Amino acid sequence: MRINELQKMMSKRRLDAVALCDKFNIKALTGVEFDAAVLIVERAPKKPVLYTDFRYIPAARRLCPFLDVKEMSDFTAHKAGKVAYESKVSHRKYLDFKLRFYQAKFCEADEILNSLRAKKTDVEIEGVANAAKINDKVWAYSFPRFKPGMTERDMARVIKSAMIKYGDGEAFETIVCVGANAAECHHMPDDTLWNGREALLVDMGVKVNGFCSDMTRTIPPKRTSALYRRVYELVKRAQQAAVDALKPGMTGVELDAVARNIITQGGFGDAFGHALGHGVGYEVHEAPIASKKSKCVFEPGMIVTIEPGIYLEGNLGVRIEDLVLVTEDGNKVLSKSPKM
Fold this sequence. Notes:
The structure is a single chain. The protein has 2 domains: 2-117, Creatinase/prolidase N-terminal domain (Creatine Amidinohydrolase, Chain A, domain 1); 122-333, Creatine Amidinohydrolase. The protein has helices at 2-12, 23-30, 57-63, 91-100, 110-118, 122-142, 152-166, 226-245, 252-265; strands at 17-20, 37-42, 49-52, 68-71, 82-85, 105-108, 175-178, 200-204, 215-219, 277-279, 286-290, 303-306, 309-312, 316-319, 322-327, 330-333. By secondary structure, the protein is an alpha+beta fold. Helix 6 packs across helix 7 and helix 8 packs antiparallel against helix 9 (252-265). It is elongated and about 70 Å long. The strands form 5 sheets. It has a 6-stranded mixed sheet, sandwiched between helices. Helix content is 34%, strand content 21%.
């Protein structure tokens, strides 16, 4: 279990306790999602303690017999020398931890948690792969239902409806861009009309059984300019090159460079301003990261998006994204939807 791995890492780092309240971190360690809980993990052989609302205690004890489950009101003073916590906790929660671990020195737990969560369990791999499969199904259902005269919001609603039909809704807010709006990386769908001939960029991910997916497809315009063709083919080539290159032992910097060098050599390096990819699991953005500064080393079991893009403000935007699993001998692309 990840809790055992965490306790081993704590001993090496001389941490006395790790205090967690993020529901996804708790789920990654326990396999169960709790909306209102604090998980305190101390060094082995001490049993981790889950503090939660009394309404959830019976279920927590049934589902997590390896935890000591207590009411939140019992979360009082803990004696510990060095405590790690999540950097994204609220200031109020941080002060709460300082009050309860009154003699402790605090440090961030993010690096440890990210390294534990980056490599997926078999259950998590199956869950993300299934979500990616359903995402393909949602796209296959939705795209033929896009009609001239629809707005970006209309098309986003078609996708959202299909996500509820086939899955559990959106993993993140669906992005639909018509024409030049695609130059905005995370454009929010608005009332821009699609005439059936302009380019489309759709970034979408369905959530299924608690697992996220993520994929982007760009649909070129009916009549492509020389510039658009050049940009689209460059992004497509960069994306495929990165997919072909991904394997165990490769670093996030090296993977990012594969795609970025192709785009830069093509004359559009300044128009590719974001990282190449990110992990997907219980959350749509998590470790590992593929970027110019990433320190991660890819291992079998990691899942990462590969999504290079070129954005020319006021003119066009192209991004192509697949979800990819790192395997023992290379990788497996989980996103199967065709590219134009």
